[in-house]
User: Which sequence fits this backbone?
């Protein structure tokens, strides 16, 4: 893998560029993809952003979101864009399998592949990489990339809004430990350029349906279990629970964090039944390493304090298995 600067000569003439991100994209995934999209388009490239699956509703206001091809809905268009591309950018993931249905297509692609990502333990399948697990978000790294290209002056409000969204969601609104001085410097730069950050917080956090709020009440009252002995809070959601309140998976964003607001809880877990698998989300505060936990027990990974995994066992068996291993670990 070469450092990302080595790609600059290739970008000096207009190229066809394919950008993608991980399956079930979050704010950082779509924010970084669209931030880079706006920048590369302004540089004269022909760019197609492809999301492996549907974009959640709370991101549907992002500038350029209408340009994103959803692989699940338009696989042929996405595959053509990939085949026609000169360069492939992969954002906010470091292992092809995180793109689910796109995995085999990316593996087979022979064009130069560029990765920009902040997760731990990157695979070495990229030609060019910017990989730094100390970074708050991939959006912050796209900002670094634009600066490295000497193009800070090209950052317009479309780029700033996309990048701000991802850094805001990945840092829990600037509270997680990865929120460095550099993150605040970047936000200060966006503010000087004219960013309306209040509007972005409203779009992302204050645009719930009443039903989603009622679902939150139901989850906290009926679906959250606290295990004081293990400093752990567990939320379990079956397909039936989701159907009851007609919520989609995008509306589960942030739910896993609630148990961590309890002083004694150091480890929060959410187990969700999906149509094809059981999804697990892990969050911690302090020094319990949920990246290692997810890798060891649930075929996943992520960051030290935020990770995810999956299980092919049934929902009920997965919950039982989790409770069983809880006594083997000691989150403090
Ligand atoms: P979430 O719980 O929000 O899905 O994921 C939390 C963090 O863990 C995110 O940074 C996400 O990219 C990462 N993550 C989630 N699921 C997986 C997985 O199956 N494998 C790996 N390597 N990382 C994951
Ligand atoms: Mn991220």
Assistant:
């Amino acid at each position: 893998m070469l450092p990302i600067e080595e790609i600059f000569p290739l970008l000096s003439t207009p190229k066809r560029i394919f950008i993608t991100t991980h399956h079930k994209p979050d704010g950082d995934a779509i924010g970084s993809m669209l931030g880079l999209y706006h920048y590369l388009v302004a540089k004269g490239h022909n760019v197609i952003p492809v999301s492996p699956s549907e974009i959640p509703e709370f991101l549907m206001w992002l500038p350029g979101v209408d340009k994103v091809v959803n692989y699940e809905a338009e696989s042929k268009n996405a595959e053509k864009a990939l085949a026609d591309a000169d360069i492939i950018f992969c954002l906010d993931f470091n292992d092809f399998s995180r793109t689910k249905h796109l995995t085999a297509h990316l593996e087979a692609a022979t064009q130069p592949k560029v990765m920009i990502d902040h997760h731990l333990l990157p695979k070495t399948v990229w030609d060019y990489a910017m990989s730094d697990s100390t970074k708050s978000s991939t959006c912050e790294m796209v900002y670094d990339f634009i600066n490295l290209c000497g193009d800070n002056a090209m950052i317009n409000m479309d780029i700033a809004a996309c990048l701000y969204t991802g850094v805001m969601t990945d840092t829990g609104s600037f509270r997680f430990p990865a929120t460095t001085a550099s993150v605040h410097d970047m936000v200060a730069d966006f503010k000087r350029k004219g960013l309306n950050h209040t509007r972005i917080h409203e779009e992302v956090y204050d645009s719930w349906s009443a039903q989603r709020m009622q679902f939150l009440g139901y989850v906290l009252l009926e679906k959250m279990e606290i295990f004081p002995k293990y400093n752990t809070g567990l939320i379990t959601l079956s397909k039936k629970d989701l159907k009851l309140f007609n919520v989609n998976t995008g509306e589960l964003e942030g739910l896993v964090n609630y148990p961590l607001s309890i002083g004694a809880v150091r480890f929060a877990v959410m187990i969700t039944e999906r149509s094809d698998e059981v999804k697990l989300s892990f969050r911690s505060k302090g020094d319990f390493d949920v990246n290692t936990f997810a890798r060891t027990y649930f075929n996943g990974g992520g960051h030290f304090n935020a990770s995810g995994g999956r299980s092919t066992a049934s929902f009920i068996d997965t919950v039982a298995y989790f409770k069983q291993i809880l006594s083997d670990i000691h989150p403090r």
The pocket of guanosine-5'-monophosphate (ligand 1) is lined by residues 22, 95, 98, 119, 281, 300-303, 306-310 (CB under 6 Å). The chain has two domains: 2-205, 211-329. The two ends are 38 Å apart (CA to CA).
